[in-house]
Write a structure and sequence with these properties.
It is a single chain. By secondary structure, the chain is an alpha/beta fold. It folds into two domains: 10-222, Spore Coat Polysaccharide Biosynthesis Protein SpsA, Chain A, CATH 3.90.550.10; 229-325, no CATH class. It contains 13 helices and nine strands. Strands 1, 2, 3, 4, 5, 6, 7, 8 and 9 form a nine-stranded mixed β-sheet that branches. The chain starts with 9 loop residues before the first strand and ends with a helix. Residues 11-123 form the Glycosyltransferase 2-like domain. This is Glycosyltransferase family 2 protein.
Length: 327
């Protein structure tokens, strides 16, 4: 996995589809990175119809590769990026994940120096201002669980891992903001070509094979999905169905359990909103009234996703946000 002579240290691959809202900020931040080595920026666009391509044209250093929309696949397109890239390492960003500092790239790949066994790194995600409270608190809680912001976390499978729950926690991976040894992806373990949850499957594949993944909290991005209530409902469906499809044992959620989880979520979020100093008092009142609708939608959709027959393609398409966005 040695660096090729003359190759850049890092390729940053940005996957875009109608990404005009945040792309200029992303590419500007990438242009301003302070990295001790050459950095290549690669954008793979899958048929954007907005101003995405016009924005890219304003950054002549960016390498653009275009594919038809129907050829996009979460794992497949990331594998393509690894094949097109020249860097020793490849970092992945979605078109709505904005590096927070000029040190983002350096911090994201720093854990690779700890050990050759570390083959993938996940960076932190910080929810955007305006993100609805349910999602905001989920993102904050999730990444807080991987360790403090001043350290690096490493995760691997050993004899301690005796249950699916612990394995799931150890192997959790998000490629919204991530990096990998490029040769590992091209020659050892690539992403699997699955409809959804390709990152979770990749995380499990690598730790099951005896490799190590790391968490780099200082390599942070601003990211939270800009979703309407209807879109959020479908995103929950996609995420849960995706996990079921890759073999996660997710039991059916009963109506009673759905009601209990909805109530618990509403009460917990209400208390957090009341204590949240990032909200003005007007915004607190707004979310106290509106956030419960997201909790209701979340658990209703989650229950539906545990009940749906995975062989019923019509039912899967009708509940899917991914399918509704395909052309």
């Amino acid at each position: 996995m040695a660096k090729e002579p003359g190759a850049p240290l890092l390729t940053v691959a940005v996957l875009t589809y109608n990404g005009e809202d945040y792309l200029e900020r992303i590419l500007t931040q990438l242009r301003n990175q302070e990295l001790d080595g050459e950095m290549e920026v690669l954008v793979i666009d899958s048929g954007s119809t907005d101003s995405t391509l016009d924005i890219i044209a304003r950054f002549p250093e960016v390498v653009l590769h275009q594919i038809p929309n129907h050829e996009f696949g979460h794992g497949r397109t990331r594998n393509l990026a690894a094949q097109l890239a020249h860097g020793e390492f490849i970092a992945y960003l979605t078109h709505d994940a904005i590096p927070q500092t000029p040190m983002w790239a350096a911090e994201l790949i720093a854990p690779f120096a700890i050990s050759d066994k570390i083959v993938a790194v996940m960076g932190k995600q910080v929810p955007r201002v305006g993100c609805f409270p349910l999602l905001k608190y989920e993102i904050q809680g999730m990444f807080a669980g991987f360790g403090p912001d001043f350290g690096t976390g490493v995760f691997y499978k050993d004899k301690f891992v005796q249950s699916e729950g612990v394995l799931g926690a150890i192997s959790f991976y998000s490629d919204v903001n991530s990096a990998a040894r490029r040769a590992f992806l091209t020659d050892v373990i690539p992403y699997q070509d699955v409809p959804y949850a390709e990152d979770q499957l990749f995380g499990r594949d690598l730790v099951e094979a005896g490799w190590i993944k790391a968490y780099a909290p200082r390599g942070a991005v601003e990211h939270s999905n800009d979703l309407t209530l209807a879109e959020y409902r479908k995103r929950i469906f996609d995420e849960t169905v995706g996990l079921r499809r890759i073999g996660h044992d997710i039991p059916v959620l009963t109506a009673k359990a759905q009601a209990k989880l909805t109530l618990r979520g509403i009460v917990g979020d209400t208390l957090r909103i009341l204590r949240d100093r990032e909200f003005s008092w007007k915004r607190r009142l707004f979310w106290l009234a509106n956030n419960p609708r997201y909790q209701v939608a979340k658990w209703k959709s989650y229950r539906r996703s545990t009940l749906v027959d995975l062989s019923d393609e019509a039912a899967l398409r009708s509940g899917s946000l991914e399918h509704s966005r395909k052309r």
